[in-house]
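Apologies for my clumsy wording, but are you able to produce some protein sequence, whichever is easiest, and the C-alpha cells describing how it folds?
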Amino acid sequence: MKYHRLVIQKIVESLTDIFSGKRYADKVIEFHLKNEKKWGSRDRRFFAENVYDIVRHWRRLWNLAGLPDKNYLNPDWITEENIWLVWGTYIVTQNQPLPPWPEVRDVVTKVEIRKRLAFLTPAQELSWTNEMWEYAAEQGQIDGKKVSFEALNDVAPVFLRTNMLKTTPEKLVTALANDGIEAVVADKELGTIQLHHRQNVFLSQAFKNGLFEVQDISSQHVGTFLDPQPGERIVDACAGAGGKTLHIATLMKNKGKVLALDIHQWKLDALKVRSRRNGLDIIETRAIENSKTIKRLEASADRVLLDVPCSGSGVLRRNPDSKWKMSKEQIANLLKEQESILTDYCAMVKPGGVLVYSTCSFFVSENEQQVEAFLKTSQDWKLEKQIRVWPGEQGGDGFFMARLRRAAAPKS
C-alpha cells in the first residue's frame, strides 16, 4: 500500500489537536478536509477513517504501542513522536504494511502486539477511561452485558429519514441512485434508508429537493413514540437544530402547530432553513430567554417532547472523542439539569396530555431513575410506557424514551 506522507502528517497533527488541544474530532477533520483541496477521494477517506478509528481505540492502541497507560490522556505525553508510534501500531493491527519511515521504526510486530493484548484490562482493551468504566459497572451495565461496548467502537452506519410528505422510501432509493448514491430501505414503515457506504449526500439533488434528512434510525423512533396527530399543538422543548422537530411535523402531515424551543438562537435559525426545504410551514421557533418563556406556555400543548441534554453515551460511535471528555462530575451536572427540565417543562402539557422524556444515553441514572424520581414527586402523572434501544440494535444508536400522561382535569 502506498502512503502519502502529507496525509499521515495531517493525521498526526489532528490527533494532537484532539487529545492535547482538546478540540472536537469532527471539527478537526472538517478543518483539514476544507484546507486540503488537492486531496483525492481516496486520501480524504483514508484521513478521516484513520483519525476516527484511532480516536475510538486510543487507549488500546496507546497500550499496544508500549506507552505507559497512566499517560494516555496526559498532554505532556501527546507528542508527535508518540502519536507516530500509535498510528504505526494501528496500521499493524489493520494488517497493513508499515512504510519504511524512521518515525515508525520502533513499532513492534503483530506477534508482539498480540502478546501485549493479553495483558490489557477490559477498560484498556475496549478503550474506556477507568472512571467511566466503573460508573457503568455501578449501574449494572457491564456484568449484565446489557450494553455491547464492542458495538460502541464500531463505525456507525448512515441512515436517512424519508420525507413522507414528498416521496416514498422506494422512490427515494431510486432518486439517490440517480445521484450516484447506493442505498437500501432499512425500515419501510418508519421510512428509513441506509447507505451502502458513507457519501456526501448533501450535494445530491434529492437533498436539495427536501426528500430526506440525515437521521439515525433510533432517533427516528422518538418521533413515532411521541405519536403526534394532525391538528395538535406540540412543543419540542429542547429542539436543537430540529431533526426530531421536522419528523414530528411530517408525522402531523403539516397540519397543526409545532413549537420548537431551544436556548441557542443559531440552532433555531438552522431549523427554519431545514423547514423550508422540507416543505413544512407549521413549525414556529422560539428561543428560551428565561423561565418566563416556559411559564407563558403553561398547559398549552397536547404533547411535549423533552429530548434532554445528556452524556451522549448511546451515540459514541458518531462522537468517539466524547468518551475521553466524559466524567462522573459532568454526568452529575447533567442529572441536575435533566431533573430541572423535567420538573419545570412538564407544566406546558395540558391536562390529559402527553410528555415524552428521551435521551441518547444508556446510563440508568439518566433514564429510568430520572423518570422514577419525577413520578415520586409529581402525583398527577402516570408512566404509560418506556423503551430502550440499545446501541447496535437495527444498526442504530442507543436511545431511551418514556411516555407519561398528565391526569385529566376534574369534571366540574
Remarks:
- The mean pLDDT is 94.
- Residues 238 and 262 are 5 Å apart (CA to CA).
- The chain has 17 helices and eleven strands.
